[in-house]
Specification:
Length: about 350
């Protein structure tokens, strides 16, 4: 298969450690964190990753986990990213952030910090995070970071436990005076598989959530995005056409709605490279090969870039260049990352 031209890398997510002070129901990790953390990339190893990544342009480096603040070198590595001109963001559960730590995070030069709220109240959030008091501590973390001048984003995993609380969640986030709310539609991998089918959203309900996002985006009150939901762009195109616009666009805002392997990559705590944090299809290891070489040469990335590799109704769909379906969700339910998106109700015209 000919290798298509590779687009610029936009986001590189780094699972800096699997250690965490919470035990979330939807966590992608399934092994014992303390034991697995012995394989975390060292400071020197991730410095080399950053050096290699800098040759690909200026992608945003997202320090995630686990809980990235449980590493003792995050400030050193954030400083190295900054020295290379690479923008960095921090994804934390917020529960460890007090006033002094918020000041250190702000001084590290992160472009934005995201904190997860998986419901509009303590009962919902704490049940999902499996640690009592995590909701109030996350809110305190947000307040400390805002006081330190940090741009803030709230992430929320949307599933059956909170899908009927979207209006309340939206109202809460607006009161917090943060820049963005990103909704993550649950992908059933890792520990997420253990929460059972009862937690999963039916395809029809899933699309109702995306319509809700479209409605709220029109308000322009806050940056609101649906993540792990590529057919959001198909719904947006359909709505625009119904309002008198043109037909479907040929490509999404970042190459395709599902950005995994297209403009996004993920590096695990032990250096394995995947198209995204939810798609466990191995593309290489930064302990064996520079990351930039993996990004440019992976056969998996090449297949994800080629719209014609998609199977089933995704392969026939006139919106495939705009949406592409969630490759991780396809993999979780079928074992094939090129299969049709299971949470899509659309029937292609072809």
């Amino acid at each position: 298969m000919p290798t298509p031209p590779f687009p610029p890398l936009r986001l590189l997510f780094w699972e800096s450690t699997v250690r965490c002070n919470l035990a979330c129901a939807h966590c992608r990790r399934i092994e014992t964190a303390d034991e697995a953390a012995r394989e975390d990339l060292t400071t020197a190893e991730f410095r080399r990753v950053l050096d290699s990544t800098a040759s690909l342009g200026k992608p945003i480096i997202v320090f995630s986990g686990g809980e990235p603040l449980m590493r003792n070198d995050w400030e050193i590595l954030a400083a190295h990213a900054r020295s290379l001109g690479l923008p960095a963001a921090l994804a934390t559960n917020g529960t460890l952030v007090d006033e002094p730590l918020a000041g250190r995070i702000a001084a590290a030069g992160f472009r934005r910090v995201s904190i997860s709220l998986d419901g509009p109240d303590a009962a919902t959030h704490d049940a999902f995070r499996r640690v009592q008091g995590s909701f109030e501590r996350a809110l305190a973390g947000i307040a400390h970071l805002r006081a330190a001048g940090m741009p803030m984003q709230v992430n929320a995993t949307i599933a059956a436990h909170n899908v009927d609380q979207l209006d309340d969640l939206y109202a809460l986030v607006r009161k917090l005076d943060v820049e963005a709310l990103h909704l993550f539609l649950l992908v059933p991998v890792g520990c997420g598989m253990e929460i059972g089918e009862s937690h999963q959203l039916a395809a029809e309900r899933y699309e109702q959530v995306l319509q809700w996002v479209l409605d709220r985006q029109a308000d322009g009150q806050i940056e609101l995005k649906a993540t792990c939901a590529p057919h959001f762009y198909r719904l947006a195109a359909q709505r625009a056409k119904a309002a008198g616009g043109t037909g479907p666009a040929m490509a999404g805002p970042h190459g395709r709605g599902c950005m995994c392997g297209v403009s996004v990559a993920f590096i695990s705590h032990k250096g394995d490279v995947f198209p995204c944090g939810y798609l466990p299809v191995h593309c290489g290891s930064v302990r064996e090969q520079p990351f930039a070489e993996i990004w440019r040469s992976s056969e998996v990335f090449a297949k994800l870039l080629d719209y014609e590799t998609l199977l089933g109704k995704c392969g026939r769909c006139e919106f495939k260049g705009l949406c592409g379906g969630c490759r991780a969700r396809a993999f979780a339910l079928t074992g094939n990352y090129l299969a049709a998106e299971p949470a899509c109700t659309y029937r292609p015209a072809k």
